[in-house]
Amino acid sequence: MLKILILEDDIEQRKAIVDFMKRYIEFENIDACIDMQTDDVKRILDSVNSKDDILVFLDIEIGNDETSGIRLAENIRGVSSSINIVFITSHEEMSLLTLERRIAPLDYIVKSLKINDIEEDIRKDINLSLQLLESRVENNEKFFGYKLRNRFYKEPMDSVLYIESVPNHINRVILHTKESRIEIKDSLHNIENKYNNLFRVHKGFLVNPRSVVSLDTMTNTVFFDKAGLICCPLAIRKKGLFKKKLRSFIED
User: Do 186 and 173 form a contact (C-beta atoms < 8 A)?
Assistant: First the structure.
């Protein structure tokens, strides 16, 4: 889930931003939440961590301090380079300073814009942050990412057993984990291209080699538990390559 933090010292402006975000998140049913809204710089800094699932909206001027938000952004960058930062401010002239200090904000929204334009920019920034978060999960071999409706989830790869296509249904697969069975909208071909650590043992099955407990070469069956209750077929033409793949994991 994308966690959104908001720093704004104008109560009415903060309320307007929060109200719009809540409506948008609820209406679109997106995987995000407003984790904090405040005028306290320290509270924001105390809430950030090295995780990359955070989007921060910062006003630059807090109270009488015209660069408070920029210094906060620098401190956030000291914690993580992947946290998304959006400045939403009246100080258009400060944009150059954010470049000089290499803050690399996701966006710079000027409050003098029409309210519809500001809301559209906020909407785009939330969606882009979600896309970046999904991309990071897909490029991380420790997790398997998938979508249900408009929400994005990640499953520890160690928990993934195998994925099977749903017969007679295009772009529908079933994810089998140690704890659950989840039907998702995707294709084995697409998943195989995303995750190099999964292996196509059969035209209808992708497996996580690290979750394999045993392999029966007589019946061409892959087992994921000692009782032999959780299994999937192994295509004969894939047998040699798959055995080699399993040996490589054992040697690791």
Answer: yes
DSSP 166: P
> pLDDT digits over 32-55, tens only?
999 999 999 999 998 887 666 899
Are 14 and 75 members of one domain?
Answer: yes
Which regions of the chain does DSSP assign to beta strands (E)? 2-7, 32-38, 54-58, 84-89, 107-110, 143-148, 151-156, 160-165, 172-177, 181-185, 199-202, 205-207, 214-216, 221-223, 231-233
Q: What is the pLDDT of residue 53?
A: 86
CATH number of the domain at 221, please.
2.40.50.1020
Q: Determine contact, residues 238/223, Cβ cutoff 8 Å.
A: no
Residue 55 CA to residue 151 CA, distance in Å, equals 16
Amino acid occupying residue 115? I
Evaluate whether 48 touches 5 at the Cβ level (below 8 Å): yes
Model's pTM, two decimal places? 0.69
Kindly state the helix (H) or strand (E) to which residue 43 belongs, with its residue range. Answer: helix 41-47
Give me the number of domains the chain comprises.
2
Asked which of 138, 153, 182 is the last residue of a domain, the reply is: 138
Q: At what angle do helices 11-28 and 115-138 cross, to 10 degrees?
A: 50
What's the average model confidence in pLDDT over 199-222? 94
Domain residue limits at 222: 144-251
Q: Which neighbouring-strand residues pair with 183? A: 174
What CATH number does the domain containing 13 carry? 3.40.50.2300
Same domain assignment for residues 37 and 157: no
